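User: I'll paste a sequence; please echo it back and then give the predicted structure.

Assistant: Echoing your sequence first, then the prediction.
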Amino acid sequence: MFDAKFQTFGDASAPALGAARLKLLRAELERRGLDGFVIPRADAHQNEYVPPCDERLAWLTGFTGSAGVALVLREEAALVVDGRYTLQAAAQLDPAAYTVVPLAETSPERWLEKHLPAGAHFGYDPWLITLDGLERLGRAVGNAGAVLVAVDGNPVDAVWADRPAAPRAPISLRAPELAGATVEDKLARLQNALGEEKLDALVISDPHGVAWTFNIRGGDVSFTPLPLSWALVPREGRPTLFVDGRKLTNTTRDALAQIAEIAEPMLLERAVELAASGGATVRLDQATAPALLAARIEAAGGKVSKGASPVALMQAAKNEAELAGMRAAHLRDGAALTRFLAWFDRNAHDGGLTEIDCVCALESFRRETGRLKDISFPTIAGAGPNGALPHYRVSEASNHPLNPGELFVIDSGAQYEDGTTDVTRTLAVGSPSDEMRDRFTRVLKGHIAIQRSVFPAGTTGAQLDPFARRALWEAGLDFDHGTGHGVGAYLSVHEGPARISKLGTVALRRGMVLSNEPGYYKTGAYGIRLENLEIVVDGPAIAGAERPLLGFETLTLAPFDRRGLDLALLNPDEIAWIDAYHARVRAEIAPLLDAADRDWLIEATRPL
């Protein structure tokens, strides 16, 4: 009945080939005089999603998770993964070839210190490691009494015979009514920031920052409209955009050439050297810039300024046009999600549905808007015990039926040209247990506490994060992920630098869009997560207030499942918030639905 265009459910790993490919790599390392090599799951930009040509870790090991590091020595090899992927890695790797090492037990650096022989030559690709990463790796190799070697040309590429070509998706210009600011205005702001920080130039190594600065979008990776590219912005004068010219139509090239020099990516190194000559100070983004560029700057006599890219904060604080686009996207997406919720309610409780059925149905409702460009990440759809895995991704092998008495977590998002969405709802299949209702209500109480918070300008996400946890803490419970992450405007669904978490040290600013997604997970039983996106807005006018205040405006419009609520745990203000939110959903979404779905929504949002 429904299908999925933007995601698949097969297992793309090839564990049976792991040993043979590892043997090929070791032979190549021996030919180069290397005793070991590190293979991170990364491209040259440290993107969350990478093109197929950069999936070196998956090709070599069979592991297809989004984070991990392989360490290959002459006699042993390890894959270090975090807690999300320990079970997946064990299933996808050949145990005779690789040892799975949980990150909670040891880091890649500590593993190397213990296993790397003294005097060994250990290689790394300087395009794939950041400055901070290189410092950590250098210390570990030095502590082992070994020698760290930067390779010229990745040895994995040398043995990957059928490696895919680099992507060449067309680049498009962002419509002015969606961008809300011209490239000239953005560059002026950026160059002013460089002057304030006494920087002579900036390398924009994050393609999200390039896309925002130059009002362009692309399609080089899945789920995010990125044009893989670089930019070099001097404090004065014209910037240079480094992009594969085959991605540019004549119209796009002409438009960009009015504001920047256009050059092929292979010229980036030389351009950085020229910018650094004469002792110039060049800012490299410590989160995304490859270590190779730092070496080029220093070799040219320049100074490396390692720090955050000033683009990141500018990009995170959306202008009014971007926020208008986000609101329109969420209204459209809310109607599609509500259609899915109505369909779910009619079909899930008699049995017969699976996790994949639900993923396909929700994507289909979004495609029927006629505006869907992509999903914003692979849908997390976990029924019963699978819902207890916060980053679960359903496959044909793991596909779980929706059974009565279980909870179903569906975390999904969409990419529309006017905005990016991310929303989670936890749905009851039949009647939830008293314990489930208790936990669901406590999670919603935390969600409401974040949404209703009013806080002084300068407040960080770390200061707000406890609001989401208090009701859980009172019952001796908690969740292990952050409460919220930034979201881009038709860009990444996971956007920095601000977040609501214990590690969120960046102050929230007006115009930022963040998720609000507390949860609870009972291992082997069920999970709960409730997520809306919020805009940081000016707070209420409070008599006698001594500081400017901020608050949140909710973007997401879709009902919560009332069956999960334990009303005895809610105070009158929380009940009033739920009723007011549901009244808003009803008022804004109902006109976009047909009669049957509208009737369902009216019932689903009736006052408590």
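The longest strand covers residues 532-538. The chain has a mean pLDDT of 96.
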